[in-house]
Amino acid sequence: MKLKYRLFTLLFFLPVILFSQGAYYITVDDEAQIGAKVIDRRDYKNSKYCHVMVGDEQFKYTPHEVKEYGLDDGSIYVAKEIEINDNRQLVFLQRLEQGDINLYFYKGRKEKMFFYETNDKPLTSLPRQSGETHYKQKLEELTDDFPDLAPYLSFISYRKKPMAEFISRYNRREFNPIPFFKFGAMGGYYSSQLKPAQNSISPKVKDLKPDQESGYTAGLFIDKPIAMSFFSWHIEFLYSRYTLSHTQIIEEVNVDFLADLSTITLPVQVRYAYPFKTLRPFVNTGLLLSYNLKNDYSFYQCSYDDYNVTINDINSNDIINRRMYGITIGGGFEWKISMKHSVFFEFRYKKAFEKLKPGGSGNEEIQFLTSINI
To answer: What is the model's pTM?
Structure first.
C-alpha cells in the first residue's frame, strides 16, 4: 500500500509521458516505467536511495521499492543484493557497462567496490585485492578470450572511468589503444624572427627588420587524456636561448641591433591523436606564455662625416618585452616503441605578442620538436 500511495502521489503531481524527461526514469517492475525528475545525490547517497523531485517536494525510494532508475546524464542505478562486511544488503549499484560483462560500482560510507556479472556467472565482487589475487589479475582472467587488451592492464587504475573503458573495449572487442597520462623530456630546433613593436615611440624601431635566427630549445612535457578520449591536455615547459647581431640602414642611417635573450615558454595546448596501433598522427593547438629571464639588447645608430664616426645609443624600452603571450599550432606523429614509451616528432608554428593582439613587440617561430615519454 505504501508504495502504491507514493506512486499515485508522483503521478498526480507530475503529469508526464513515458520518458518525457529525457534520460530520467524509474523502473518499478519489469513493465511500468514512470518519467520523473530524479536528483543526483552523488555516489554514496545514490547507492542508498532514489531521490525524486515533485514540485518543491522530494521523495526517497529504497531499493526495495524501485528496481532501477536513471539520471539525466545517462547514469543508471540498479537494485542488487550484495555482501558488505559479511552482511547481505539490497543497494543501488551504478551500472557502468553492459554486454558480455556487466560492470557495476558501489560507493559506501567508507568503501568503494566494483562488481561484475556474465551470462554464466552471477553478480560477483571485484575488490582491489582479494587474498593473493589483484583486481588486474581478475580482469585478465575475465577477458582472456581477447588477449590483445591484456598489455593495457598496466594503465588501468581502480576508478570508474578506467575500469569502465577497459570493460567497454572488451565488450566491443575494440583494440584501439587506451589513453594514459604521459610525462617526458623534449628538445628541438627553431628558426625565429623578432617582430619589434609597431607602436614604438621611436620611428627607427618600427622599421627594424631583424634577420631570422636559429637555435635550440629543451624542456619537459605532460600529456593528460581528457575523459579517457583521444583528446588530451598537452602542457610544456621549454627553455631557449636567442642571440642576434643585426645591421640595417634606416632613413639613410646605419643602425645596429644586438640582443641576448634567455626565455622560458609555457604552451598549454589541446592535442588530438588518431588511435593507430604503432604510428599515430596528431595535431595540437593552444595558447602560450613566455618570459625572458635574460632580456639584454642594445640599439645604436652610426653616423659618418669626412673625419669621424659617431655612435649614438637609441633609447627604446619597447623593442623586446620580458613577458609575451601568443598562439601555437602544430602537428606530427607518435611512434610507439613499447607499451609505455613513445617518441614524438612535430612541426610547430608559434606567434607571440606583447599582448594578445598585434602591435606590440613579439616574434614568429617555426619549430621542429622531438620528445619521449619516460
So the answer is: 0.66
| Strand 309-313, strand 323-336: pairing | unpaired
Are 113 and 123 in contact, with CB atoms under 8 Å apart?
A: no
Rounded CA-CA distance 8/184 in Å is 61
CA dihedral 349, 351, 357, 361 (to 10 degrees): -170
Q: Give the full edge-to-edge strand order of the sheet including 57-61.
A: 37-39, 50-54, 57-61
Q: Which of 64-68, 208-212, 234-238, 360-364 has the highest mean pLDDT?
A: 234-238
Q: What is the pLDDT of residues 62-92, one digit of tens each?
A: 999 899 998 888 899 999 999 887 889 999 9
Torsion angles phi and psi, residue 63, rounded to 5: -65, -15
The domain defined by 182-373 folds into Porin (2.40.160)
Q: Which three cell numbers stand for residue 309?
A: 664616426
**Contacts of residue 349, Cβ cutoff 8 Å, sequence gap at least 6:** 328, 329, 330, 364, 365, 366, 367
pLDDT of residue 271: 97
Residues 20 and 67: their CA atoms lie apart, in Å, by 20
How far is the C-alpha of 258 from the C-alpha of 165, rounded, in Å? Answer: 56
CB 130 within 8 A of CB 140: no
User: 209 by DSSP, 3-state: which?
Assistant: coil
Q: Is 154 exposed, middle or buried (0-12, 13-18, 19+ CB in 10 A)?
A: exposed
Quick: pLDDT tens for 239-294: 999 888 777 776 667 777 788 889 999 999 999 999 887 899 999 999 999 999 99
In 49-183, where does DSSP find H-type helix?
135-142, 160-172
In terms of Cα–Cα distance, which of 337, 2, 362 is closest to 197? 362
- Are the C-beta atoms of 76 and 47 separated by less than 8 Å? no
Alpha carbon 24 to its chain's center = 29
The Cα–Cα gap between 108 and 102 comes to 20
Domain residue spans of the chain: 2-172, 182-373
111: left (phi over 0), alpha (psi -120 to 50) or beta: beta
Closest CA to 142 of 119, 175, 112, 176: 119
The size of the chain, in residues, is 374
